[in-house]
Specification:
A five-stranded parallel β-sheet has the order 2-1-3-4-5, with helices on both faces. It has helices spanning about 1-25, 40-55, 90-100, 135-150; strands at about 30-35, 60-65, 80-85, 105-115, 125-130. By secondary structure, the protein is an alpha/beta fold. Helix 2 (about 40-55) packs across helix 4. It starts with a helix and ends with a helix.
Length: about 150
């Protein structure tokens, strides 16, 4: 009886230890936010990024570009902003997000335009043509930057 009690106690202790270890996860470090204007190209990039990180158990969330001003950068390991070309300067919400991000490299900006050559002034971003066929190549560039930030 004492042996059975001892084994039960050891088993209970081992199960408790394993359960407590499985609950530990980094806060914000392994979460990716995608801010999108919801074009066909941006939807495809969002889908590809989400699929890639799903296999690595890293959560992603896609939100509308219009709600970017409400983003708390400290809650995210990386933030991908997919923006259609609308002029040479970044929006005030985007520049604020870049300035407050720690590190600034966690904000990855992709500017999509008809030609794929337009850039935002003062932003180290990825440029792309707004073609769905370009999405895999752009996604590889985004993933490369995310992986550097999440290390």
């Amino acid at each position: 009886m004492k042996t059975l009690f001892f084994l039960g106690t050891v088993l209970l202790a081992a199960m408790t230890l394993l359960m407590s270890l499985s609950v530990i996860e980094p806060q914000g470090k392994a979460r990716i936010l995608i801010v999108s204007q919801r074009t066909e190209f941006q939807d495809e990039v969002s889908r590809l990024v989400t699929e890639h990180y799903k296999t690595k158990s890293i959560g992603t969330q896609v939100i509308s570009f219009n709600t970017m001003k409400n983003v708390k950068e400290e809650e995210w390991g990386a933030i991908v902003v997919l923006q259609a070309w609308e002029g040479a300067t970044a929006s005030s919400a985007l520049t604020t997000l870049i300035k407050t991000a720690k590190p600034p490299a966690k904000v990855i900006v992709v500017v999509a335009s008809e030609t794929g050559s337009e850039k935002l002034t003062g932003v180290d971003g990825i440029t792309a043509a707004s073609l769905k066929s370009e999405a895999p190549d752009v996604t590889r560039k985004i993933i490369s930057r995310i992986d550097k930030v999440l290390k």
